[in-house]
Amino acid sequence: MTTKATQSNEPVGRFLGWLGLRNARGAPPEGGHAPPGDGGPLDLARQARYELAASITSFLVDNDLDVTPANLLLAHSAFSGKNPRLARQIIAQAQSADGINQSWLNELGEQDSGQPDRADLDRLMTRLETNLESFHANTKEARTVTSDYGTELEQHVVDLEQLQKTGRIVSNLADLAKVMLDRTRKAEDDMRKSEDEAKALRRSLERAKRDAEVDFLTGLPNRRAFETLLERHHKEARAACEPLSVAFCDIDEFKKVNDLHGHDAGDRVIKAIADTLARISNDHCHVARHGGEEFVMLFRGMTPTQAAEKLDDAREALADRRLINRKTDEPFGQITFSGGVADIFGYGDTRAALKAADGALYKAKAAGRNRVEIADAA
Questions:
Q1: Is 235 helix (H, G, I), strand (E, B) or coil?
Q2: Which of 110, 182, 271, 374 has its CB surrounded by the most CB atoms within 10 Å?
């Protein structure tokens, strides 16, 4: 394991302050006053909300940004830990020569707005499943009734044909009944086809739900699936009084790989690291692709130190490999990743723990990359 990063320069320190990382042990932001309390879970949650509001306000005012719903949503996503990648984009822009301005933030908002809303997708799928169930039940009932009616009508046709002393009226009635019977049988066949189509649609829906939770490039669970997994294990581990740790890891200097070798080669590097992380996954270690070159991991029954050791073993295994671009036979050079680990129960909620893990990852990057850092408990 490696040592923690040294103190950052003043611009970086200001952004760490915005992100709530400068005061890792839960102290109020510089110049602010935390609300009074006894330090219990409710008080920690209240203090976290206070610090989040202060960070958002400082970010908007320091950069002369408009107080608009769009700016507030972006700032909240970055500083609450909901979108760690967005937070790092803001930090990187702030350290650039151009700095942060309203025009750049508008472009960033347009890029970020393309993410699907999980709640809307869940509601849409639930509504579609409900409609399918209702349609299936109705068509099955209608087909049964139609079949019974057809059988009874067919018997009446036979009875009518057997009558010897009926006139033209009865004969015409028999012909009409035959026509009605043919139409009834056709309606029954059409409803059977509709029922088969409903079953096929339901299978397609189930497949689409599975695909919606799998990253197409790596085959790992995606961010949406991980959030569901995190919620379930958080409840179970809390009830069982088991430790639970979360980690972020990010490929070091991945942009250079894309610039030198192309995006196809970059995709192969992402898959190689996904395979490396997948090897340490099991019932107690869950790996998912969080987005881009970033991965997230959940360690059930492991303290942050144990989780960091496990992740560090994977980091060393990758750093010892020398990957080759199979299309050009050119070496990629050493490919490494940095990681940050946090104790989920060391914070007021899972969102705060994810933010802390991302902060530890940022420290690992600032300290030289190719290392794993553990976040301080709140």
A1: helix
A2: 374
